[in-house]
Design goal:
Number of helices: 13
Number of strands: 14
Function: Involved in DNA damage repair.
Structural class: alpha+beta
Order of helices and strands: HHEEEHEHEEHHHHEEEEEHEEHEHHH
InterPro entries: Nre, Nre_C, Nre_N
Keywords: DNA damage, DNA repair
Pfam families: Nre_C (PF04895), Nre_N (PF04894)
Family: Belongs to the Nre family.
Number of domains: 3
């Protein structure tokens, strides 16, 4: 799973002494989850109600792994694949949900025109907004493999797919049919669905399934998540640039699934920065903690967020949604600290939800940036000097204040 899991540390610890510093052993936790669902999935034919859910891999592109996710459960299973509704769930809950979803995987060219009946069935499943009774026949009994990923929610047991059938008609909204058949480019299709109020992960599923856009292609789930969040974020950024500035410095905070999220909104023209650190003992926190970051001004980020990757687009979208709702513009600084309590990667959705919850938890408003920074320090463990060294926005603020000092003989920035 990770380098530390291959070391002598695990052999000495055996999950009992917690020598890695985590509050629970990730290996044993996943083993317990796997054991709890073993009897339910110990067969080649799986019948149940898909949430609905599909997965598209990225390895081997343009020939990728794709398949439906079907649990051995009938009825309302939508909670098994509703990331934006998991705000009150634990990491153990998420691992259990995902372990129930059995994936029947097959290889497919990303060009959907070269697809056959099975892919057409998968696409129909993806377009449904309600669970769909489905049946998969597998070559072997499914195996649960745990791979650490910071992007998509963890994938459950899987095996090669021999056959897949929808045993009832999927519930496909008329608006989805309209967008899919209207030959819209992917970006306007995404925004139309978003503005109509469709769940973000429903849109991601449609993009992955290759039903959006003019030249329709399968899109790996991981790529789809970032693409949809980036597309919506860009549109919202352009919109809020026309709004008035907020009046004060605002500080927000929330802790979610072992992640700390602190947000500062500044009464200045739009810019966004995410500062992130994996604390010692956290999932990917080997060695001394180091602050990583990505940023943008009103023109948007140049290229891809190389350091914070998918977390950047998820965090940005949550703050932009909050500003759009208020019809206000601000300069945005987001701090993310990952603690040892985040013992298993559950997907970038938790960043989306964590920052969203933070934006609903205003701590205080301040007259100066110094006061806001001093308030944020109370919530964070990493020495604040490390954030100051890396932050592009804070460097810009310091330079702006120095210019102001030279012109007006006073300063407020420390």
């Amino acid at each position: 799973m990770m380098e530390i899991f291959k070391s002598k540390l695990c052999a000495v610890c055996k999950g009992r002494k917690l020598l890695c510093g985590r509050p629970t052993c990730p290996i044993l936790e996943r083993f317990r989850v796997a054991r709890s669902i073993e009897e339910k999935i110990n067969r080649r034919d799986i019948f149940g109600s898909s949430p609905p859910s599909i997965f598209v891999g990225e390895y081997g592109y343009p020939k990728v792994r794709i398949g439906p996710l079907v649990p051995p459960i009938e009825g309302n299973t939508s909670h098994l694949d509703s990331p934006l509704k998991w705000e009150n769930k634990t990491i153990k809950d998420i691992l259990y949900y995902r372990s129930l979803l059995v994936m029947g995987e097959m290889k497919s060219n990303v060009n959907v025109r070269k697809s056959g009946r099975l892919l057409s069935e998968v696409q129909e499943l993806a377009m449904s907004i309600r669970p769909v009774d489905s049946e998969i026949l597998l070559k072997k009994k499914p195996v649960l493999k745990v791979l650490p990923s910071e992007f998509a929610p963890p994938v459950g047991p899987k095996a090669e797919l021999l056959d897949f059938e929808l045993t009832e008609n999927p519930k496909i909204p008329k608006r989805t049919d309209y967008v899919v058949n209207d030959e819209l480019k992917a970006e306007p299709a995404i925004m139309r669905l978003y503005n109509w109020g469709f769940d973000e992960y429903y849109i991601i599923r449609l993009l992955s399934a290759g039903v959006l856009g003019i030249n329709k292609k399968l899109v790996p789930t991981r790529w789809s998540i970032t693409a949809v969040q980036d597309t919506i974020g860009k549109r919202l950024r352009k919109e809020i640039l026309h709004y008035e500035l907020i009046n004060e410095f605002e500080v927000y905070f929330h802790e979610f699934l072992g992640n700390r999220y602190a947000v500062i909104l500044m009464p200045e023209s739009y810019a966004f920065e995410l500062l992130e650190v994996w604390l010692k003992g956290s999932l990917f926190g080997s060695g001394e903690p180091e602050v990583i970051h990505d940023y943008e001004d009103f023109r948007g980020i140049k290229g891809y967020a190389e350091q914070t990757t998918g977390a950047y687009y998820a965090a940005r979208l949550s703050v932009l949604e909050a500003l759009r709702k208020r019809r206000r513009q601000a300069r945005i600084l987001v701090f993310r600290e990952i603690t040892p309590r985040y013992y298993a990667p559950v997907g970038v959705w938790q960043i989306r939800v964590g920052v969203k919850k933070a934006m609903n938890n205003l701590v205080r408003k301040f007259n100066t940036l110094n006061e806001a920074l001093n308030e944020v320090k109370k919530f964070l463990e990493q020495p604040f000097e490390e954030y100051l060294k890396k932050s592009w926005i804070l460097k810009m603020e310091k330079q702006r204040t120095l210019d102001y000092y030279l012109n007006h003989h006073k300063t407020t920035f420390i």
